[in-house]
Design brief:
Shape: globular
Number of domains: 1
Helix content: 10-25%
Oligomer: single chain
CATH architecture: Alpha-Beta Complex
Radius of gyration: 16 Å
Strand order of the largest sheet: 1-4-5-7-6
């Protein structure tokens, strides 16, 4: 199965899928190779990934890549796992490559978490500390703003797909 063909989710933007790319605790940056249907180590981080990390299918951010997502869960996941999640906010970057923060749908530990204000300060600090050495951060988006970001990214993806299909049909 090509993981780039996974759907966005059954109740987007409130419940979406995330394809896990990097497991929590890993210092390896994995990248999905769709031709090989496998993950390859792209480079190494200086610190460990604080959450599960991946992408939201059927979305395109402003950099024409799928939206990135960080998944909070007690379960350790491997690259290629497709996880159903609830978005709870977004860590904003100045370059607009925002990170959608989510909680795993099947995790009882996360059931009470409705937005990023429900996370403890230690978890928020871990997430910002991971990105601060590499990128300038610009605050947080609320749940509603995150839903709008997901809707916009999905619409961008669908427009891109339609444009690609029209190009094929015109040749």
């Amino acid at each position: 199965m090509n993981l780039l063909e996974v759907p966005i989710g059954r109740h987007a933007p409130g419940v979406i899928n995330v394809v896990i790319e990097i497991p929590r605790g890993s210092k390896k940056r994995y990248q999905y190779n769709p031709q090989r249907h496998s993950f390859e180590v792209e480079y190494r981080f200086s610190i460990s990934m604080p959450t599960e990390y991946g992408w939201i299918p059927e979305t395109l951010s402003v950099d024409n890549e799928p939206l990135d997502a960080m998944v909070i869960t007690k379960h350790l996941m491997q690259p290629g796992y497709v996880c159903e999640v609830r978005p709870i906010g977004t860590l904003k970057r100045k370059d607009k490559d925002h990170k959608v923060i989510c909680v795993a749908l099947n995790d009882d530990k996360c059931r009470h978490i409705q937005d990023t204000s429900d996370l403890d300060a230690k978890m928020l600090k871990k997430m910002t500390n991971f990105f601060e050495p590499y990128f300038e951060l610009n605050g947080w988006l609320t749940v509603d703003e995150t839903y709008e970001l997901i809707r916009e990214s999905y619409a961008r993806y669908m427009a891109n797909q339609k444009g690609a299909q029209n190009a094929v049909n015109n040749n």
